[in-house]
Amino acid sequence: MRRPDPADRRSRLITATPAGRMAWEDRRDALREVENQLLAPLSATESAGLRAALRALACRVQQSDPMTDLCAAVREGDSAR
Fold this sequence. Notes:
Distance between the termini: 27 Å
Shape: flat
Structural class: alpha+beta
């Protein structure tokens, strides 16, 4: 859904519909299941180390594409856990 941005009348804010939110949650849950299956052979320490390394890599990639805030995406993903 699109609605005017109260802070900037020239732009529009886009929000997910209830169906869109549900679809996103379904995809997120499916991704977590695949991630759990892939990381199952690793210990909790190894899994945490891999996640930290991937997070650092994503933040490094951010420097080459400043239009996409990968670090924020990673932080949001971490906070959803």
